[in-house]
Specification:
The complex is a heterodimer of chains A (260) and B (271). With 260 residues, chain A is mainly alpha-helical. Chain A has ten helices and no strands. In chain A, helix 2 crosses helix 10. Chain A is flat. In chain B, strand 1 and strand 2 form a beta hairpin. The longest helix of chain B has 18 residues.
Chain lengths: 260, 271
């Protein structure tokens, strides 16, 4: 409480919330004025027009949001489960680690969206599988890397305590190794959640079924319905925001009493 | 050494015969301990003291079966060290409290009981009893990061006592604490040791601490780590603050100091 009184040392809490909102509103105002009175490109409608379109077309935007978000969520879930299982194997057996490490490194440098057209053709134009696979690979990498690191962070004194208490290997894993790795898993999930959304959305630009946020943005941009295309961009932002906030919240929840 | 014949092995908390430890390194083998002969009777308080590198912590880790002796024989209550560890015959505390940060004080104290599948009700009763013993009853639902260093160390001691061991191993448990807390916990430890009747092997590099706590102080010396002297304190079973002002106490502090500094040359000649 007293910190707010000290002049200049720290922003009061209300200002920390209000300041970015004010800056955001100023940018929107400048944008509106530019579109209204300036020489704006045709594809840049005013925020008001975008907002009107967003409210008016909320029904179809929501339907496409569900498609893209489901693909991202499936990718995130499957990718994370695969990553945790494989990281667990790599951490427990050196040969497996030796086999996986170069593969994951190779996977990490491939621009995943580049293989999307191939996957889309492979699994047919009516299947969401290609998009989900791309999101899976995108989510897999940060989770795998973080969990593998987390599984190796147990402190020597903790291992001694467990050994002195005659804990079995399985007990040590459950009571020490796993809880130590959980904060790392949550960090990996937070990073992966954004990547999964981006991957699922961008993958839609390369074919597949005619639904989803990405497909709609491309379609309406091509047909010149700028305001509606932008409204869909807003829908994409909403998905990304929800994924990030949920995983960031989970991360905070589990790191309350984490070491360090 | 034939002292083993005078006392039956089963009444000895710790018996070490010709115990040595060699660590292989890239630059060649390093002898951490050699020819250790040590007996700790049930209920006895023994300190291991010496400069760094004298192998006192190594010896404690061998007794705890956290490392394996290269040579010699080591028995805990007449059993091999490994068997004693699995049977939970000892409890151990380190310089770092080593509490699991995601567990409450109660869950940390109860950890050894949980590992050995003690029923919940019985476990809770024992945890409450131990919290009372170390004076942390009000803090049982707190997390380690909400406790001071001294309180964390008390939780670690309670955890070491959870399975009611007859032997307590302590590796500089008060080494990271301030002097005030340290003296307070020393008093608490003598009380707890007396109440539980457990033998204690206590590693320290503080001479006053060793004398204040112990029935016997085992003096060790480095390169290679070995026992050079054993000082009987004979200060009796009551260890309170007045003991710190007692001439007999000062006398023993001096005796241990001389053993630490003087004995080295003498013993080296003997070898």
């Amino acid at each position: 409480m007293s910190t707010a009184v000290v002049p200049g040392s720290r922003m009061p809490s209300w200002l920390r919330v209000v300041a970015p909102i004010v800056v955001g509103l100023l940018i929107l105002a400048a944008w509106t004025l530019y579109v209204e009175f300036g020489d704006a490109p045709r594809m840049l409608p005013s925020p008001i027009a975008i907002g009107q379109e967003f409210v008016l077309r909320w029904g179809i935007i929501w339907d496409d949001m569900v498609v893209t978000a489901s693909n991202a969520l499936i990718g995130l879930t499957v990718g994370a489960i695969l990553a945790v299982v494989l990281a667990g194997l790599a951490a427990s057996a050196k040969p497996i680690d030796g086999m996986l490490a170069p593969l994951v490194a190779a996977l990490a440098v491939i621009p995943i969206v580049a293989i999307t057209p191939i996957l889309n053709t492979m699994f047919g134009a009516s299947s969401q599988f290609g998009r989900q696979a791309v999101a899976t690979i995108a989510a897999f990498i940060p989770v795998f890397i973080n969990v593998l690191r987390g599984l190796r962070q147990t402190r020597p004194v903790h291992r001694d305590v467990l050994r002195a208490s005659a804990a079995s290997g399985a007990q040590t894993f459950r009571m020490l190794t796993l809880p130590t790795a959980v904060p790392y898993l949550m960090t990996g999930l937070r990073v992966a959640s954004s990547l999964a959304v981006i991957a699922a959305l961008v993958a839609e630009y390369f074919g597949g079924p005619a639904d989803g946020i990405g497909t709609s943005i491309a379609t309406y941009a091509k047909s010149g319905r700028a305001a509606l295309a932008w409204a869909y961009v807003g829908g994409g932002i909403l998905i990304g925001l929800v994924f990030f906030l949920v995983t960031a919240f989970l991360e905070r929840l589990v790191t309350r009493h984490a070491p360090g | 050494m034939t002292t083993a014949t005078t006392t039956p092995a089963s009444t000895l908390a710790v018996q070490a015969t010709g115990v040595g430890k060699v660590f292989p390194t890239k630059a060649g083998d390093v002898t951490a301990l050699t020819g250790v002969e040590l007996e700790v009777r049930a209920g006895e308080f023994v300190s291991l003291i010496g400069p760094s590198g004298c192998g006192k912590s190594t010896l404690l880790r061998l007794i705890a079966d956290l490392d394996e002796a290269t040579t010699g024989e080591l028995t805990i209550f007449g059993k091999p060290a490994r068997r004693a560890r699995i049977d939970q015959d000892y409890g151990i505390a380190f310089q770092q409290a080593g509490l699991l940060p995601w567990r409450t004080v109660a869950a940390n104290i109860g950890l050894p009981l949980e590992l050995h599948k003690v029923p919940k009700a019985q476990r809770e009763a024992r945890v409450a009893e131990l919290a009372e013993l170390v004076g942390l009853t009000e803090f049982i639902d707190r997390y380690p990061d909400q406790l001071s260093g001294g309180m964390q160390q008390r939780v670690a001691i309670a955890r070491a006592l959870a399975a009611s061991p007859k032997l307590l191993l302590m590796d500089e448990p008060f080494g990271a604490l301030d002097e005030m807390t340290r003296e307070y916990l020393q008093g608490e430890l003598t009380r707890i040791a007396a109440e539980t009747g457990a033998a204690v092997v206590f590693v320290t590099h503080s001479i006053p601490e060793a004398v204040f706590l112990s029935d016997r102080v085992v003096v060790m010396s480095p390169r290679p780590g070995r026992i050079t002297d054993v000082v009987e304190t004979g200060l009796g079973s009551v260890r309170d603050e007045s003991l710190r002002e007692n001439p007999a106490y000062f006398e023993k502090v001096t005796a241990v100091r001389e053993a630490l500094h003087g004995a080295k040359v003498e013993r080296a000649n003997e070898r």
